[in-house]
Write a structure and sequence with these properties.
single chain, alpha+beta, Alpha-Beta Plaits, 3 domains, five-stranded mixed beta sheet, two-stranded antiparallel sheet, 11 helices, elongated
């Protein structure tokens, strides 16, 4: 039931919390804190509640991560629930119509059986005419019902096709990062599972790239969150433009991206990583309203190859270590697990 007073209380609570947590009063942030205040999104309520209890700062990166983790999955869940209800309604309608059609078929069969029995008896011409007229009427009624059923089933079939299309769209949305329009973390994890299965069956090489935008916080602090979003979109575009076939690029969280390269050896993966790095470096960030060049974007990339039997977490740690090595050696750099600079870092640690 619509309760304006409750909704107003939720809104006031959300605004007050945003002030207490030093969160910028943007529509995106209000949506997040309203969802927390109303309890409409349990996962968001849990995450935000834990951060408030621990007095964890709500940085732009933290807020973006919460939206990434909680909001898109909640929207997808609501859409799936709605589509499931629509599919149930269509199925229920079809079953009701088929049940009615079955009863009509039984009635028609009984009419034919009765006519057969009557024909075995001696009949006057008038009685025969009456019998034939009755059969013709019953047959016509059956044809009419059959045509009506055909039309209704066709309509139901179209509704099912439409629901299937929407279901496919929802599934795609649930696996897509809403900002950059590339795969999200869930889709990436699914792709990794498929790749590990294929690697076990065919021994194909699989390599992981972990990419991080250099000085991303500086862009956000200097030019605002919207410019930061444009940076994320630009990097995502560079990733997809330099991949092929079964490769998967995903926004893994905040300003971090992950790339899965199927059937790709470490040396070839490093070549792809450098292509991506150069593509990003070659783009200039321009402010549309003024035409001012805001700066050059660069990324650092760590590269690690799966060994037989390894799980994602193990390879991820190795790729993250290489990414850290790239940051420590000046950024705008690609470092793989065999790079001599990694040994120096490990020795220093």
């Amino acid at each position: 039931m619509h309760r304006p007073d409750r909704e107003q209380n939720f809104a006031q609570t959300a605004i007050a919390l945003m002030g207490e947590c030093a969160v910028a009063p943007t529509p995106e942030n209000f949506e997040l804190f309203y969802a927390y205040a109303s309890g409409a999104n349990p996962s968001m309520t849990q995450v935000v509640g834990q951060m408030i209890a621990a007095r964890t700062p709500f940085t732009e990166g933290a807020l973006a991560e919460i939206r990434l983790r909680c909001q898109s999955s909640a929207r997808a869940a609501r859409a799936m629930e709605s589509l499931g209800g629509g599919m149930s309604d269509v199925i229920s309608t079809v079953l009701t119509k088929l049940e009615a059609a079955g009863k009509h078929a039984v009635d028609y069969s009984n009419t034919l059986s009765a006519a057969t029995g009557t024909l075995e008896e001696e009949q006057s011409p008038a009685d025969l005419r009456k019998l034939v007229d009755g059969l013709l009427a019953a047959t016509h009624a059956m044809e009419t019902r059959a045509k009506a059923l055909e039309g209704e089933l066709q309509k139901s079939s179209e509704q099912v096709s439409e629901l299937r299309g929407k279901l496919a769209d929802v599934r795609k949305e649930s696996l897509t990062d809403p900002l950059t329009n590339i795969a999200n973390r869930k889709a990436f994890d699914d792709a990794v599972r498929d790749a590990i299965t294929a690697m076990a069956e065919t021994n194909e090489p699989v390599t992981l790239l972990m990419c991080d935008i250099d000085h991303f916080k500086k862009f956000n602090d200097s030019w605002g969150h919207q410019t930061g979003d444009q940076v994320l979109k630009l990097v995502a575009a560079c990733l997809t433009e330099n991949l092929k076939g079964r490769d998967t690029a995903a926004r893994y969280g905040g300003e971090e991206f992950a790339v899965l390269l199927r059937n790709t050896q470490l040396s070839d993966a490093c070549r792809v990583a450098n292509q991506i790095r150069l593509a990003v470096e070659g783009r200039k960030l321009v402010k549309k309203s003024t035409g001012d060049v805001l700066g050059v974007i660069t990324i650092s990339i760590g590269v690690a190859q799966f060994a037989p039997g390894e799980v994602l977490e193990t390879v991820m740690r190795r790729a993250d270590a290489c990414l850290y090595g790239a940051k420590q050696n000046g950024r705008n750099l690609v470092i793989d697990q065999t790079d001599s600079r990694m040994a120096k870092l490990e020795a220093a640690a």
